[in-house]
Specification:
Layout (H helix, E strand, L loop, with lengths): L2 H15 L3 H15 L5 H14 L3 E4 L2 H11 L3 E6 L6 H11 L5 E6 L7 H6 L3 E4 L7 H16 L3 E5 L16 H13 L4 E10 L4 H11 L9 H9 L6 E7 L3 E2 H10 L4 H19 L4 H12 L5 H18 L12 H13 L3 E4 L6 E4 L4 H9 L2 H19 L5 H15 L8 H16 L11 H10 L5 H4 L1 H14 L10 H17 L11 H13 L9 H29 L1
Length: 583
C-alpha cells in the first residue's frame, strides 16, 4: 500500500465510521509508528548474542539440503516463513539461524505482549513488528496493520510469524489465525506478486524449558496468565540453565501463494474460503514436516500405561512405534534410533532430570513413572506426535466397528471413519474427503501387511485378523484424552441452560471442577484431559452443532445434547476395547 493508497483507504474508512478523515489518518499514522521496525546492524549483533545466550541449553539442528534450497529460493523470491509456535524461544532460534545460514533477514510479526522495555525497543530494531491481538473493535488499527504488511510484501521483504497466533498449550498444532495471512494474500493479489512463497516451518524441542511448559499447563487449568515484563524476562532467562537437548528446524514444501490463490478461486471459493483453505494447506504441511522425537515416543508409552514402567516395558511400546514410523516413512527427530535401548534409556533419564518423570531404583529393577502434576507436561511432548498417529487411530476404530457390527463390511468402516472425522475436526487437521479415504486405506494396508487388498473387500474376519496382529494399537493413546475432555463438556451441557443463559467462563469453570472429580474417581483416564484448551475445542463442536442455542426449543436442544453424550460414550467404549487388546 503506497502513500496515495493509504490516504484513500483512510478517507474511505473515515466515511464508514462517520469521522473526520484527518483524525482517522492521524490515528492510523500513530499506529504505523507504533509498529515500525527496521534492521539495525549494531542491534542485530547484540540481539544475536542475546539469542545465542538464551538458547544455550540447546543445539539447533537443520538439514543442510533444506538450507541450500532455501538460499536458492531466497535469491529470487519473497519468503514467508509460517511456523508452529511451541516456546518463547522460537523467535530466538529460527530468525538468527536463518541469517547464519545466509537467508535474507526477516521481518517478524510478534505479539504486543512482548513489547516492553528494553526487549521491545531492541526487537523493533531487529525487524520485529509487535501486533496487538485484540483488535477486533479497532478498525483504524487493522487498516494500519494491513498497510504495514502490504508494504513489506510488495517491497520483497521476507516475513516470519506463527500461523497459530499463540503458543500451543497441548503440544499439537492449534487452529490457524487468519488475520495476517489475509493481509498478505490481499497484497499478493493486488500487486500480482508471483514470487511470494509460503515456507511451512516445524520447530521441535527435545524438551521445552520446564518452567515455561509448567506455566502453560497451569494456565490450561484456569490460572491467570502472567504478564510479560522485565521482571518476567529476568525470571524466564534464569530458568534456562539446564541442558535440554536439541531444537529441530524443519522446512516443508513451499507454496507458491499467487498460483494457489488462483487455483482456489477457480474452484469458486470466496475471499474467506480462500484464506481458510490456504491456512489449512499450510498447517497440513507443517504437520507433515514435523518429526517424531524420542521424547514424544517415550511419553506415548508413559501416558498410555500411566503407571510405573521398566525399561523393557517402555521399549515394548516404543519399538513397535518405531516400526510403524519406518513403514510410513515418517522422520524421527535427529535420526534417532527408537529401537535402540540406549536411546530410550537416555530419554528416560533426561525426563527425570527435568522433573517430568521420576525413577525408583530401590527394587530389583528400575521403574519410571510420570511425576505428580506432570501429566500435562508429558502430554505436551506426546501430542507433538499425535498428528502422525491420528488416521491410524481412526483406522483401528473403523476396523473394530466392522468386527462388532452384524454383517459389517467396508461401508461400516467408512461410515465410522467419517463420523470420527466430523467429531474431531475442531481438534485436528483432516485432508479433504477423497484424500482422507486414501490415507485411511494406507493405514489399513499397513495393518493388513498386504497392499493388494482393497477397502471394498474388507470383511469381518479380515478386520478381526488385522486388529489381532497389529502393533502398536494407538487409538487409546491418541484419542482418549481428547474424547474424555469432550465427555466432560457434554455432561455439563446436559445440565446447562441454552441461549442467553449460557455463561462460557462459568461453564468452563464447572468443567474444570467436574474434571478434577472424575480424575479422582478414575472416570477418565488421566488429568491431562482437564484443561481449558481441550474444553474450549469441545465447546466449538457443541456450538457448531447448535447445542449452545435455544432457538430450536429447550427440549430439542437438551435431547441433542444427550445424543452427543451417547455418541461419545459409544466411541469411548470402543477405545476401551482396543486398550484392552493392546495390553
Amino acid at each position: 500500500m503506497n502513500p496515495e493508497q493509504f490516504d484513500t483507504a483512510t478517507t474511505q474508512l473515515a466515511q464508514q465510521l462517520g469521522r473526520d478523515a484527518a483524525s482517522v489518518r492521524a490515528e492510523a499514522n500513530e499506529y504505523v509508528g507504533e509498529m515500525a521496525a527496521r534492521h539495525d546492524p549494531v542491534v542485530f549483533r547484540a540481539w544475536s548474542r542475546f539469542a545465542a545466550w538464551l538458547v544455550r541449553g540447546y543445539d539447533i539442528i537443520t538439514d543442510p539440503t533444506q538450507m541450500a534450497e532455501l538460499r536458492e529460493l531466497d535469491e529470487k523470491n519473497t519468503l514467508i516463513f509460517l511456523l508452529s509456535h511451541r516456546s518463547y524461544l522460537d523467535e530466538f532460534a529460527l530468525p538468527p539461524t536463518l541469517i547464519r545460514e545466509g537467508i535474507s533477514p526477516c521481518f517478524g510479526m510478534a505479539g504486543a505482549n512482548l513489547d516492553f522495555f528494553p526487549l521491545g525497543t531492541l526487537a523493533r530494531r531487529n525487524g520485529i513488528v509487535h501486533v496487538r491481538r485484540a483488535s477486533g473493535d479497532m478498525p483504524v488499527y487493522r487498516l494500519a496493520l494491513r498497510a504495514i504488511v502490504g508494504r513489506m510484501v510488495t517491497g520483497g521483504h521476507n516475513l516470519v510469524w506463527s500461523i497459530e497466533g499463540g503458543r500451543t498449550r497441548t503440544g499439537k498444532l492449534r487452529p490457524p489465525r487468519y488475520g495476517l495471512l489475509r493481509y498478505v494474500t490481499d497484497a499478493i493479489e493486488s500487486a500480482q506478486a508471483t514470487n511470494a512463497l509460503v515456507i511451512p516451518v516445524s520447530i521441535m524441542y527435545d524438551q521445552l524449558p520446564l518452567h515455561e511448559v509448567e506455566l502453560m499447563s497451569s494456565e490450561s487449568r484456569g490460572s491467570s496468565k502472567q504478564p510479560e515484563n522485565l521482571r518476567w524476562l529476568i525470571g524466564y532467562a534464569r530458568g534456562l540453565k539446564k541442558r535440554l537437548g536439541r531444537i529441530y528446524l524443519d522446512f516443508g514444501t513451499p507454496i507458491p501463494v499467487h498460483d494457489r490463490l488462483l487455483a482456489l478461486r477457480a474452484e469458486g471459493m470466496d475471499d474467506r474460503q480462500v484464506v481458510e483453505r490456504l491456512a489449512l494447506d499450510i498447517c497440513h504441511r507443517i504437520n507433515r514436516t514435523t518429526p517424531v522425537s524420542a521424547t514424544a515416543a517415550v511419553c506415548v508409552a508413559m501416558l498410555g500405561a500411566d503407571r510405573g514402567l521398566t525399561l523393557d516395558e517402555v521399549c515394548a511400546t516404543v519399538a513397535p512405534l518405531a516400526g510403524y514410523l519406518a513403514a510410513r516413512g515418517w522422520p524421527v527427530a535427529g535420526g534417532a534410533d527408537l529401537t535402540d535401548r540406549g536411546t530410550v534409556e537416555e530419554t528416560l533419564h533426561a525426563l527425570v532430570d527435568s522433573g517430568v518423570l521420576t525413577c525408583y531404583d530401590g527394587g530389583p529393577i528400575a521403574v519410571w513413572v510420570v511425576c505428580d502434576n506432570q501429566h500435562l507436561v508429558a502430554a505436551v511432548y506426546r501430542n507433538s506426535a499425535v498428528h502422525v498417529l491420528l488416521v491410524r487411530a481412526i483406522a483401528e476404530l473403523s476396523l473394530l466397528a466392522i468386527v462388532r457390527t452384524p454383517n459389517g463390511d467396508n461401508r461400516t468402516g467408512w461410515s465410522e471413519a467419517l463420523a470420527l472425522r466430523e467429531l474431531l475436526k475442531f481438534d485436528f487437521f483432516f485432508a479433504g474427503r477423497a484424500e482422507f479415504a486414501g490415507e485411511l486405506w494406507d493405514e489399513i494396508a499397513i495393518m493388513a501387511g498386504d497392499s493388494e487388498h482393497r477397502l471394498t473387500e474388507i470383511q469381518k474376519d479380515d478386520a478381526e485378523t488385522w486388529l489381532a496382529d497389529s502393533t502398536p494399537l494407538v487409538a487409546h493413546l491418541v484419542l482418549r484424552p481428547f474424547l474424555d475432555a469432550y465427555r466432560i463438556v457434554a455432561h455439563e451441557l446436559t445440565c446447562a441452560p441454552g441461549g442467553e443463559g449460557f455463561d462460557e467462563d462459568q461453564f468452563l469453570d464447572s468443567c474444570l471442577r467436574l474434571g478434577k472429580q472424575w480424575t479422582l474417581q478414575h472416570r477418565i483416564a488421566s488429568e491431562e484431559s482437564v484443561t481449558q484448551e481441550m474444553f474450549g475445542t469441545a465447546l466449538k463442536l457443541a456450538r457448531h452443532r447448535g447445542l449452545l442455542s435455544n432457538t430450536a426449543g429447550d427440549a430439542e436442544v437438551t435431547d441433542r445434547r444427550r445424543q452427543l453424550v451417547a455418541e461419545l460414550d459409544k466411541v469411548l467404549q470402543s477405545i476401551e476395547v482396543l486398550a484392552g487388546r493392546a495390553h
